[in-house]
Write a structure and sequence with these properties.
This protein has 12 helices and 15 strands. It is α/β, with parallel strands linked by helices. It has 3 domains: about 70 residues, Winged helix-like DNA-binding domain superfamily/Winged helix DNA-binding domain (Arc Repressor Mutant, subunit A, Orthogonal Bundle); about 130 residues, Nucleotidyltransferase, domain 5 (2-Layer Sandwich), CATH 3.30.420.40; about 160 residues, Nucleotidyltransferase, domain 5 (2-Layer Sandwich), CATH 3.30.420.40. The strands form 4 sheets. A 5-stranded mixed β-sheet has the order 5-4-3-6-10, with helices on both faces. The protein has a 5-stranded mixed β-sheet with strand order 13-12-11-14-15, sandwiched between helices. It has a 3-stranded antiparallel β-sheet with strand order 7-8-9. α8 packs across α9.
C-alpha cells in the first residue's frame, strides 16, 4: 500500500498551544460578555500567568478592554474584562444573483452603515469594478467611525477555495476558476476573506442568531439556488473539495438519475426559487389561462397558494415534498441539533416547512429542531464578522475525536 499521500498525524507545538489558549479566552469572553482574569483562569483551566499574558496581548492589540471593577460580593474587587466590540470593525460584502450589499459592522454584530446596489452579471471586468467601487464607498463610512478595520469578508454564491480565494464555480455569476482574491489584493491592503455565502450565513447564525450556544447546526439557504452551511462540533465544515454544502445537487428521486445538471443541480431545478418559477411558467404556458401575461416568480406562486388557487397549492405541496426529502437526508447524515432555513424561500416557511416538520416525525431516529433564520438578509453580512475575526485572530480549537 502506498502511504505517501496519507495525512501525517500532527502534534501540537508551543505556538499552536498559544493560539488555542488565546482563541479559548476570546471565545469565553464572547460568550459570557465579561469576566475577571481569575474567572477566565478557573473556567478554562489555564494558569493565571498564561491568562495574564494573553490578556495583556489582547489589550495591547485593542481586542479586549477593562470595563471596571467587580462590585459584587465581599473582598478584593477584581478588574472585569470584555471584548472591545465597538472599536473593531469589519466590512461585509454580500454578493447575490442580482445585487451586491456592503456594510460596516462592529464585532458585536451591530451594522453601522450599509449600501445595496443592483448588478447584472456577465461582463467580468465591469463586475469587478462594481465590487471594488462598493468597497471604496463603504470604506468612506469606516473612516467616519473611531475604530480599527480588521478586514473585509466577501460572500459568494458558489464553490470557493477559501485559502486562495479562487471561485471554483459560481453559476449565477458565470465564474469558473476565477481568482477574485488576487484581483482585490492588488487594490486593497487590509485582510480579505472570500467565502461561500451560505458558510457565512451559518457562521452568522452561530454567533448572532438562531444557532447561539449550538455546537451542531446546519443552515439551508433556499433562494435562486439551494445551498447549506455546516457547523459541526462548533467549527465550520468544508469537506474535501470545500463543497460540503452543495445540497442543490441532491437527487430528489430516482427519476433524476442518468441526467446531467450543469451549473444548477437536480434539487434546485424543482425546489429553488428559480425552479418554482420555472414550473409555474410551464404550467401557465400549457394551461393557456388568463395568467399567461404575468411574469411569474416564486413569490407570486406563494401568493396564489395563500389565495387558495389549486395549481399553486399543488406546486407548493410538491416543493415541500422535495425539500422534505432533502432535509430528512441531511438530518440523517449529520444529526444536527438545529436546521435553520434561510434565503428568500424562508418567507414561505408556513407553506413549505411547517408541513415538512409534521411529515418527518418518526421517519428518522432524531428529528432536529427546524427553525426560520433569525438574521434573514443580514446573515451573510454578520457571518463576515465571524470569518474575519477568526482569520485575524487565527482561531484555533481542539475538536475531540
Amino acid at each position: 500500500m502506498n502511504n505517501l499521500h496519507r495525512k501525517v498525524p500532527r502534534t501540537i507545538s508551543q505556538a499552536d498551544m498559544r493560539l488555542i489558549n488565546r482563541s479559548a479566552v476570546v471565545e469565553y469572553l464572547r460568550l459570557v460578555e465579561h469576566a475577571s482574569r481569575t474567572q477566565i483562569s478557573r473556567q478554562l483551566e489555564i494558569s493565571k500567568p498564561t491568562v495574564m499574558r494573553i490578556i495583556n496581548q489582547l489589550m495591547n492589540d485593542g481586542f479586549v478592554l477593562s470595563i471596571g471593577k467587580d462590585q459584587s460580593g465581599k473582598g478584593r474587587h477584581q478588574e472585569l474584562l470584555a471584548l472591545n466590540k465597538k472599536d473593531n470593525l469589519v466590512i461585509g460584502i454580500d454578493i447575490g444573483g442580482s445585487h451586491i450589499g456592503a456594510a460596516v459592522i462592529n464585532i458585536g454584530g451591530e451594522i453601522l452603515h450599509s449600501i445595496f446596489k443592483d448588478v447584472v452579471w456577465g461582463d467580468t471586468d465591469k463586475n469587478i469594478i462594481q465590487i471594488e467601487s462598493m468597497i471604496e464607498e463603504i470604506l468612506v463610512s469606516v473612516e467616519k467611525e473611531n475604530g480599527k478595520l480588521l478586514g473585509a469578508s466577501i460572500g459568494i454564491p458558489g464553490i470557493v477555495e477559501s485559502e486562495t480565494g479562487v471561485i471554483r464555480l459560481a453559476p449565477s455569476m458565470n465564474w469558473i476558476d476565477f481568482p477574485l482574491l488576487d484581483k482585490l489584493k492588488k487594490r486593497f491592503k487590509f485582510p480579505i476573506s472570500i467565502e461561500n455565502d451560505v458558510n457565512l450565513s451559518v457562521l452568522g447564525e452561530h454567533w448572532y442568531g438562531g444557532g447561539i450556544g449550538v455546537e451542531n447546526l446546519i443552515m439551508v439557504a433556499i433562494g435562486t439556488g439551494i445551498g447549506a452551511g455546516l457547523v459541526l462540533n462548533g467549527s465550520l465544515y468544508r469537506g474535501h473539495h470545500e463543497s460540503s454544502g452543495e445540497v442543490g445537487y441532491i437527487l430528489p428521486s430516482i427519476q433524476f438519475l442518468d441526467n446531467k445538471y450543469p451549473g444548477f443541480g437536480a434539487l434546485e431545478s424543482v425546489a429553488s426559487g428559480k425552479g418554482i418559477a420555472d414550473i409555474a411558467r410551464a404550467y401557465v404556458d400549457s394551461s393557456k389561462t388568463n395568467h399567461a401575461e404575468r411574469k411569474w416568480e416564486a413569490a407570486d406562486v406563494f401568493e396564489a397558494a395563500r389565495n387558495g388557487e389549486k395549481w399553486a397549492l399543488e406546486i407548493t405541496s410538491q416543493t415541500s415534498e422535495y425539500l422534505g426529502l432533502a432535509i430528512t437526508n441531511i438530518a440523517a447524515c449529520f444529526d444536527p441539533e438545529v436546521i435553520i432555513i434561510g434565503g428568500g424561500i424562508s418567507n414561505a416557511f408556513d407553506l413549505l416547512i411547517e408541513p415538512i416538520k409534521e411529515r418527518i416525525a418518526g421517519v428518522i431516529p432524531n428529528v432536529p429542531r427546524i427553525i426560520c433564520s433569525q438574521l434573514k438578509e443580514k446573515a451573510v453580512l454578520l457571518g463576515s464578522v465571524v470569518s474575519i475575526v477568526k482569520k485575524v485572530m487565527r482561531y484555533s480549537v481542539i475538536i475531540e475525536g
